[in-house]
Each structure stands twice: as structure tokens, then as C-alpha cells.
Amino acid sequence: MITHDGKMDDSTKKTLLSQLKALDNVKDGDASGHPPRLVQEHLQHHETMPGEIATLSHASGGSLKPQNSSTQLTEAVLEAARSTTMSPDQKAQAVYRHSLDLFSGLFETPTAEFIKNSKKAVGGVVDMILEDDDTAINLLKVTSHDFYTYTHSVNVGVLSVCLAKQLFKGKSSHNLREFGAGAFLHDLGKVKVDPAILNKPGRLDEWEMKRMRIHPYQSYRILMDTSQLSEECAIIAMQHHEREDGTGYPLRLKGREIHEYGKIGCIADVYDALTAKRSYKEGMPPFKALQIMKEEMIHHFEKEIFQNFVLLFSR
Questions:
Q1: Is the Cα dihedral 294, 295, 300, 302 positive or negative?
Q2: How far is Cα 278 from Cα 198, in angstroms, rounded to an integer?
Q3: Which CATH superfamily is domain 10-22+35-314 in?
Q4: At 89, is the secondary structure helix, strand, or coil?
Q5: What one-character DSSP code corresponds to residue 299?
Q6: Quick one: DSSP state of residue 174?
Q7: Which of 185, 189, 251 is nearest to 216 (CA)?
Q8: What burial letters (b/e) apply to 194-223, b meaning 16+ CB within 10 Å?
């Protein structure tokens, strides 16, 4: 059960931990190349956007500034986020641009140090979003619609933190810095997915989709193995592809089984997937994407959270 302040009670924590323990034996696949049995059992079900997969920066040539260290990239994000001289529009563009540089580098080199520095940078961006309404609004407007994995990660992070700000306003029990870190790092597990699958310019076949659907667990494992796994990060990493009606993955959770943070991540993830431009299709305009989500996909989301998400675009 999720308490009114959005935190998990002991029973829900125990359930999540048992889910994670159940997945602890998931590896990249067995010697025959087939996904492990547990993944086959849990990951057979419909995905909202099957086959519309992100492209890793290193596989696409999309890396922005790989020559810079994680410390330099982190400081660039923090300097922009703390600026008091730029206009809200200029500040939003600078924060977004430097965040893309940082996450491009992270997906190139997902080391413990890089992940730690990325979380530090995200903390600065979260503070800015919470404290500076004008820049936060502009940040929603400047997001790119090119669907590289690092672009998608930044977009989902921004959307999720802005939505959490609206939902949890006045509540002190939420650690939105850690929540933001989980949202920005939710797809880190894609570094464990074969680039041939990530870069496929079309829909994935059944076996490829099974491989792809391991990435939430891989995100969890990377964060745990690098000592960066907080409760908030674990929830978003594992639950951003779960759906309200139980048709998601990796565990087919539904309704109250899904944490509020997972539901936020789900909505942000789907919206960015719909609006992203790919090699084989144009991205939807924001209004069209929201319309599709409301009219054709609303059973995937908690309605109240989705309604608050729509309000982000009415300013």
C-alpha cells in the first residue's frame, strides 16, 4: 500500500524487495542465446510502443562531448542551473544542452564515478525546477524530439520532476532529488542491450522484444552495483514500463501494486516516445500525443496523475 504522503509502507517495501529478489537471477541470456526462463515468463506481454526503440549515442554517432570528464560535464550543468544572470529561456536552454552533454557521456561510459556525478547534476536541476517556476516552464518547451537514449533520459527526467512538483507540492516527505535521479537514470540498463536491437529501424520481433524488456532490471542492477541505488531509483527503474491495467513489464503489476513514482515515470516515458522523431516516422505534436494517450491508452495510466500531466502543457 502507498501512504498518503507517497511513501511505501513496510508491506509494499517487502513486496518490491521480493520482486527484485525474484529477478536477481536474470542474466543476459543462456548459452543458446535465448532469454532466461524467468524473463520469458514475465516479459511476454504487450508494450505500449512495441519496437519503437531508442538509439544509444555511441552506436549512432550521436555523442555530444565525450572528450570532457564527468566532473566537467557535471559542473557545466550545475553552473547553468544556478545562474542568476540568464533569462528563464536562456537558462532553460543552457541547462538542457549541458544535461544532454552529460547524459551522452554517461551512456558512453556508465562508470560508478560518472553515475555519481550525474546524480549530483540532477540534484541541481531538480532544485532549479522546484525553485524557479519560469525556468521550469521554459524547460518543458525546449526539449528535443530526437530519440537518442540520452535525449529520452533527459526528457523523461524533466517531465517526471515537473509532474512530481505539481503532485507533491507542499509535501516534505518526498526526496525529489533521488526521485529525479531515478527518472533521469531510468533507462541506464539499455547499455546492456545489443546495439543491433537498439538501432533497428523498425519494430522488433518477439525475441528482440524479450531482450529489450530486460532493461528495467538491468537499470536496477547497474545502480545497485555502483552503490547508487536508493529506494526512489529502484522503484522508477523497475516500474516505468508497468501499466495500470497489468499489461506492462517486467512483472505485470497493476493498480495499487505500482508505486506512484512508477506511474509518473510511465506517463513521462510514453509521452516522450510518442512525440519523438525516429528514422522511420515523424514525432507527434504534443497535443496529438496527449489526445492519443487520453482516448486510446488511458487504461495504462492512473487517471488523476495523467490529468495533472496534461495541466503541465496548459501554461
A1: positive
A2: 12
A3: Hypothetical protein af1432 (1.10.3210.10)
A4: helix
A5: G
A6: -
A7: 189
A8: eeebbebeeebeeebbbbbbbbbbbbbbbb
Domain positions in the chain = 10-22+35-314
The arithmetic mean of pLDDT across residues 109-127, rounded, is 96
Give φ, ψ of 39 to 5 degrees.
-65, -40
Per-residue cell: 50: 512495441
In contact, 129 and 92? CB cutoff 8 Å: no
pTM across the whole model = 0.82
Q: What are the cell numbers at 297?
A: 491508452
Amino acid identity for residue 74 in this structure: T
The Cα angle at residue 111 between residues 157 and 32, in degrees rounded to 5: 95
Residue 306, CB-side half-sphere exposure with 13 Å CA sphere = 21
The C-alpha atoms of residue 92 and residue 52 are separated, in whole angstroms, by 28
The predicted pLDDT at position 23 comes to 53
pLDDT tens digits, 261-283: 999 999 999 999 999 887 667 88
